[in-house]
Protein backbone atom coordinates (compact mmCIF):
# COMPACT_ATOMS: atom_id res chain seq x y z
CA UNK A 1 0.00 0.00 0.00
CA UNK A 2 2.80 2.45 0.85
CA UNK A 3 4.47 1.76 -2.49
CA UNK A 4 1.22 2.78 -4.23
CA UNK A 5 1.08 5.91 -2.06
CA UNK A 6 4.67 6.75 -2.95
CA UNK A 7 3.92 6.37 -6.66
CA UNK A 8 0.77 8.52 -6.40
CA UNK A 9 2.66 11.19 -4.41
CA UNK A 10 -0.40 12.72 -2.69
CA UNK A 11 -0.09 15.87 -0.59
CA UNK A 12 -1.93 14.23 2.31
CA UNK A 13 -2.51 10.66 3.47
CA UNK A 14 -5.25 10.06 6.04
CA UNK A 15 -4.47 7.19 8.41
CA UNK A 16 -7.43 6.62 10.78
CA UNK A 17 -5.72 3.77 12.63
CA UNK A 18 -4.65 3.44 16.23
CA UNK A 19 -1.18 4.57 17.25
CA UNK A 20 0.16 1.00 17.39
CA UNK A 21 -0.49 0.62 13.65
CA UNK A 22 0.10 4.24 12.63
CA UNK A 23 3.56 4.45 14.24
CA UNK A 24 5.10 1.66 12.13
CA UNK A 25 3.37 3.04 9.01
CA UNK A 26 4.99 6.44 9.58
CA UNK A 27 8.34 4.76 10.14
CA UNK A 28 8.08 2.71 6.95
CA UNK A 29 6.82 5.71 4.94
CA UNK A 30 9.92 7.66 5.97
CA UNK A 31 12.14 4.72 5.03
CA UNK A 32 10.48 4.61 1.59
CA UNK A 33 11.05 8.35 1.13
CA UNK A 34 7.37 9.29 1.09
CA UNK A 35 7.13 13.05 1.52
CA UNK A 36 3.34 13.26 1.97
CA UNK A 37 1.91 14.70 5.17
CA UNK A 38 0.13 12.03 7.20
CA UNK A 39 -2.96 12.92 9.20
CA UNK A 40 -4.59 10.83 11.91
CA UNK A 41 -7.47 10.98 14.33
CA UNK A 42 -7.75 10.91 18.11
CA UNK A 43 -6.60 7.30 17.90
CA UNK A 44 -3.07 8.72 17.56
CA UNK A 45 -3.35 10.29 21.03
CA UNK A 46 -0.61 8.31 22.70
CA UNK A 47 3.06 8.93 23.38
CA UNK A 48 3.49 5.35 22.17
CA UNK A 49 2.88 6.65 18.62
CA UNK A 50 6.06 8.69 18.88
CA UNK A 51 7.95 5.84 20.54
CA UNK A 52 6.98 3.58 17.63
CA UNK A 53 7.52 6.11 14.84
CA UNK A 54 10.49 7.99 16.26
CA UNK A 55 11.48 11.01 14.19
CA UNK A 56 9.25 9.72 11.38
CA UNK A 57 6.30 11.18 13.33
CA UNK A 58 7.63 14.73 12.90
CA UNK A 59 5.64 17.00 10.62
CA UNK A 60 2.46 14.97 10.77
CA UNK A 61 -0.88 15.93 12.35
CA UNK A 62 -3.82 14.44 14.19
CA UNK A 63 -7.15 15.72 15.41
CA UNK A 64 -8.15 15.37 19.03
CA UNK A 65 -10.72 16.32 21.62
CA UNK A 66 -8.35 18.47 23.66
CA UNK A 67 -4.76 19.52 24.21
CA UNK A 68 -3.35 19.16 27.75
CA UNK A 69 -1.58 22.53 27.68
CA UNK A 70 -4.73 24.47 26.71
CA UNK A 71 -5.88 27.10 29.20
CA UNK A 72 -9.29 25.48 29.74
CA UNK A 73 -7.59 22.20 30.68
CA UNK A 74 -5.12 23.71 33.16
CA UNK A 75 -7.01 22.90 36.40
CA UNK A 76 -7.96 19.39 35.28
CA UNK A 77 -4.44 18.54 34.08
CA UNK A 78 -2.86 19.89 37.26
CA UNK A 79 -5.18 17.84 39.49
CA UNK A 80 -4.71 14.74 37.35
CA UNK A 81 -0.91 15.03 37.41
CA UNK A 82 -1.00 15.44 41.19
CA UNK A 83 -3.18 12.36 41.69
CA UNK A 84 -1.39 10.17 39.12
CA UNK A 85 2.23 11.05 39.95
CA UNK A 86 2.95 13.42 37.08
CA UNK A 87 1.20 11.48 34.35
CA UNK A 88 -0.45 13.64 31.67
CA UNK A 89 -4.11 12.78 31.01
CA UNK A 90 -5.07 11.67 27.53
CA UNK A 91 -8.21 12.75 25.70
CA UNK A 92 -10.29 9.91 27.13
CA UNK A 93 -9.53 11.08 30.65
CA UNK A 94 -10.53 14.65 29.75
CA UNK A 95 -13.73 13.46 28.08
CA UNK A 96 -14.64 11.30 31.09
CA UNK A 97 -14.07 14.27 33.39
CA UNK A 98 -16.20 16.53 31.21
CA UNK A 99 -18.94 13.90 31.00
CA UNK A 100 -19.20 13.78 34.78
CA UNK A 101 -19.21 17.59 35.04
CA UNK A 102 -21.94 17.95 32.40
CA UNK A 103 -24.05 15.31 34.13
CA UNK A 104 -23.61 16.89 37.59
CA UNK A 105 -24.50 20.29 36.12
CA UNK A 106 -27.62 18.86 34.47
CA UNK A 107 -28.71 17.20 37.74
CA UNK A 108 -28.23 20.52 39.55
CA UNK A 109 -30.19 22.44 36.90
CA UNK A 110 -32.97 19.81 36.84
CA UNK A 111 -33.53 20.49 40.52
CA UNK A 112 -34.93 17.02 41.16
CA UNK A 113 -33.46 13.53 40.76
CA UNK A 114 -35.86 12.68 37.93
CA UNK A 115 -34.70 10.92 34.74
CA UNK A 116 -36.90 13.01 32.43
CA UNK A 117 -35.88 16.30 34.06
CA UNK A 118 -32.17 15.42 33.93
CA UNK A 119 -32.45 14.32 30.29
CA UNK A 120 -34.09 17.65 29.41
CA UNK A 121 -31.41 19.57 31.32
CA UNK A 122 -28.71 17.65 29.41
CA UNK A 123 -30.42 18.47 26.11
CA UNK A 124 -30.67 22.14 27.12
CA UNK A 125 -26.94 22.39 27.94
CA UNK A 126 -25.42 25.43 26.22
CA UNK A 127 -21.90 26.82 26.42
CA UNK A 128 -20.58 24.42 29.03
CA UNK A 129 -16.86 24.95 29.63
CA UNK A 130 -14.96 21.74 30.34
CA UNK A 131 -11.37 20.54 30.21
CA UNK A 132 -11.81 19.59 26.56
CA UNK A 133 -13.24 22.97 25.55
CA UNK A 134 -16.68 24.47 25.23
CA UNK A 135 -19.70 22.30 24.56
CA UNK A 136 -22.04 24.59 22.63
CA UNK A 137 -25.16 22.43 22.61
CA UNK A 138 -26.34 18.87 22.35
CA UNK A 139 -27.89 17.69 19.11
CA UNK A 140 -29.50 14.25 19.09
CA UNK A 141 -27.64 13.50 22.31
CA UNK A 142 -24.21 14.38 20.90
CA UNK A 143 -22.16 17.38 22.02
CA UNK A 144 -21.27 19.98 19.41
CA UNK A 145 -17.75 21.17 20.17
CA UNK A 146 -14.44 22.17 18.67
CA UNK A 147 -11.67 19.93 17.38
CA UNK A 148 -8.01 20.46 18.23
CA UNK A 149 -5.36 19.87 15.59
CA UNK A 150 -2.03 18.70 16.96
CA UNK A 151 1.24 18.69 15.03
CA UNK A 152 4.16 16.49 15.95
CA UNK A 153 7.40 18.47 16.13
CA UNK A 154 10.72 17.27 17.53
CA UNK A 155 8.94 14.08 18.59
CA UNK A 156 6.45 16.00 20.75
CA UNK A 157 2.77 16.79 20.25
CA UNK A 158 2.35 20.57 19.80
CA UNK A 159 -0.85 22.58 19.64
CA UNK A 160 -1.46 23.71 16.05
CA UNK A 161 -5.03 25.00 15.75
CA UNK A 162 -8.58 24.71 17.05
CA UNK A 163 -11.39 24.29 14.54
CA UNK A 164 -14.85 25.43 15.59
CA UNK A 165 -17.99 23.68 14.32
Structure, explained:
By secondary structure, this protein is an alpha/beta fold. The chain folds into two domains: 2-64, Response regulator (Rossmann fold, 3-Layer(aba) Sandwich); 71-145, Response regulator (Rossmann fold, 3-Layer(aba) Sandwich). Helix content is 40%, strand content 24%. The chain has helices at 2-8, 19-31, 47-53, 74-83, 91-110, 115-123, and strands at residues 12-14, 37-40, 61-64, 128-130, 133-139, 142-145, 147-153, 156-163. The strands form two sheets. A five-stranded mixed β-sheet has the order 1-2-3-7-8, with no helix packed on it. The protein has a three-stranded antiparallel β-sheet with strand order 4-5-6, with helices on one face. The model has no long low-confidence stretch (mean pLDDT 93).
List the helices and strands and how they pair.
Elements: H1 2-8, E1 12-14, H2 19-31, E2 37-40, H3 47-53, E3 61-64, H4 74-83, H5 91-110, H6 115-123, E4 128-130, E5 133-139, E6 142-145, E7 147-153, E8 156-163
Parallel strand pairs: 1-2, 2-3
Antiparallel strand pairs: 3-7, 4-5, 5-6, 7-8
Keywords:
single chain; 165 residues; alpha/beta; Rossmann fold; 2 domains; five-stranded mixed sheet; 6 helices; 8 strands; elongated
* Count of discrete structural domains: 2
User: What percent of the residues sit in helical stretches (DSSP H or I)?
Assistant: 40-55%
Instruction: Kindly provide the name of the CATH class of the largest domain.
Output: Alpha Beta
- Taking pLDDT < 50 over at least 5 consecutive residues as the criterion, the unreliable ranges are none
User: N-to-C SSE series?
Assistant: HEHEHEHHHEEEEE
* Oligomer classification: single chain
| Tally of helical runs | 6
Amino acid sequence: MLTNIKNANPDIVYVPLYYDSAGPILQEAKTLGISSTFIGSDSWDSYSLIELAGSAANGHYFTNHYFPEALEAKHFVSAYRFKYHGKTPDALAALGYDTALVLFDAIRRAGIPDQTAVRKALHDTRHFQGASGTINRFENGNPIKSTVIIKIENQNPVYYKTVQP
